[in-house]
Request: fold
Amino acid sequence: MQYVFEFLGLMAVFSIFIVVPGADFAVILRQSIVHGRRAAVMTGLGMGFSLLFHISYTILGLGLIVSKSLMLFAMIKWAGVAYLVYLGIKSFRAPGFNVAEINVTEEDRKPISAWKCLSMGFVTNALNPKPVLFFLSLFSTLVHHDTPGLIQFSYGIGMATALVAWFAGVSTFFTVKPIRDRFIASGKWFNRITGAALVGFGFRLALARAAD
Reply:
C-alpha cells in the first residue's frame, strides 16, 4: 500500500504538471492543426517514450546523489518545490490559447511519416527543460529514495501512459472544430485553475517536508 499511495501522490502532481501548456503542448497543437490527429497522436507517443528516458537516468542518478550527499539531495528537493510554485504562478498569469499564431504554409502540409512524428515527439520532450526539471527535482521529492528501482520505473510507465493519453485527447480537441473552439475559449481559466493547483501542491509539499 505504501507504493500505491506514493504513486497516487506522484500522479496527482504530474497530472496537473502535464496539462500546463509548454513546448510539448505547442508541438502537439501544431501537429493537430497542420497534419491531423494521427500525426499528433504519434508525436505524443514519441513524447511518452522520451519520458521513459527521463525516468531511467533519474533512477540511476538518484541513488548516487543520495549516497554522496544528503545535503545535495535536500537542495534538489527544495529546488523542485520552488519550481512547482514558479510554474504555477507562470501558468496562472498566462493568457489563453492563440491558434491564430500558428502559420501554416503549403510546405508544412506535405505528408509526414509516423517515424518522423515519433522522432519529433521524442526529441522535443528530451530537450524540454520542463520534464528534465520535474524528474531531477520533483520526482526526487515525491518518491522516497528507498523505493526499489523497478517500482520507480513502473511509476514512469504510468506517467508516460498518462502523458500519451492527455496528448491523444488534445489531438482530438484540436481536430474537431466545435470542441477546439470551446477549449480555446476556456483557455485563460484553464491556465488559472492549473496554475493555482500547482502552487497549492508546491506549498503543501514544502510544509510536509518542513515537518519531517
